[in-house]
Amino acid sequence: MTDSERSLDKGSAAPGPVPQGLIRLYSMRFCPFAQRARLVLIAKGIKHEVVNINLKNKPHWMFEKNPLGLVPFLETSDGKIIYESTIVCEYLDDAFPGHELIPSDPYAKAEQKMLLDTFSALTPIFYKILMTQNTNIDATELKSQFFEKFKKLEEALANKNTPYFGGDSVSFFDYMVWPWFEKFSFCGLEGLLDKTPNVKAWQDRMLQDPAVKATFTEPEVFSGFFKLYVEDSVEAADYNLN
Ligand SMILES: N[C@@H](CCC(=O)N[C@@H](CS)C(=O)NCC(=O)O)C(=O)O
């Protein structure tokens, strides 16, 4: 169940079949979409192994498993493949017992999906802001565009008046958005949270969550990865490993 393995690249052989009783996640240590799956695997206590992939030098066999050539994807011990992070996480929630992350109540479930749609509108702006890091580009305008949409999450949480977006405990939506919050300080977005007290309190609670703690990447480590990533370095995926 380690995520500290070096990534497999173009020259690597495909890993063998997944051992019985385990599920395998193909991941990349710094990918927020893959972190969604790692959060769910840990939160639900699912026995798993992680195979990291070097996305700057992808192994050929990756495309035989996932034609999209993206992480995350899952492989089961009977050879089934599941890809796309939200589908992966929904599958994990459905297929494994334990803490149910997606509510069974139809309205509560719809509410989670509506929130996720709201959040999805934020990610393209987030990436534009991310790409201004370590440059002289002024991100002020992008940050105000981001805040206009971000406010909707504050409103949603204030209206619900619950500690988490799904109620009294961590739900699917909380995990689906967490990986981006972790990068707020790196992107100079943490100041926004002063204007969104409910989301700020939620973030503080999330930082205490065991799955969040287990998958957390320190901003300075992410920064080291990001520097290599923008240089298109094949070393990026394994940054900070011995
Ligand atoms: N829509 C996909 C996005 C996944 C994604 O973009 N993963 C990135 C890494 S963070 C990737 O695999 N990039 C490889 C590439 O673009 O070639 C999901 O939700 O799983």
Automatic annotation (TrEMBL):
Reactions the enzyme catalyzes: L-dehydroascorbate + 2 glutathione = glutathione disulfide + L-ascorbate; RX + glutathione = an S-substituted glutathione + a halide anion + H(+); methylarsonate + 2 glutathione + H(+) = methylarsonous acid + glutathione disulfide + H2O
Protein EC: 1.20.4.2, 1.8.5.1, 2.5.1.18
Domain GST N-terminal residues, every copy: 21-100
PROSITE patterns named in the record: GST_CTER (PS50405), GST_NTER (PS50404)
Limits of the GST C-terminal domain: 105-225
Function: Exhibits glutathione-dependent thiol transferase activity. Has high dehydroascorbate reductase activity and may contribute to the recycling of ascorbic acid. Participates in the biotransformation of inorganic arsenic and reduces monomethylarsonic acid (MMA).
Family per record: Belongs to the GST superfamily. Omega family.
Protein name: Glutathione S-transferase omega
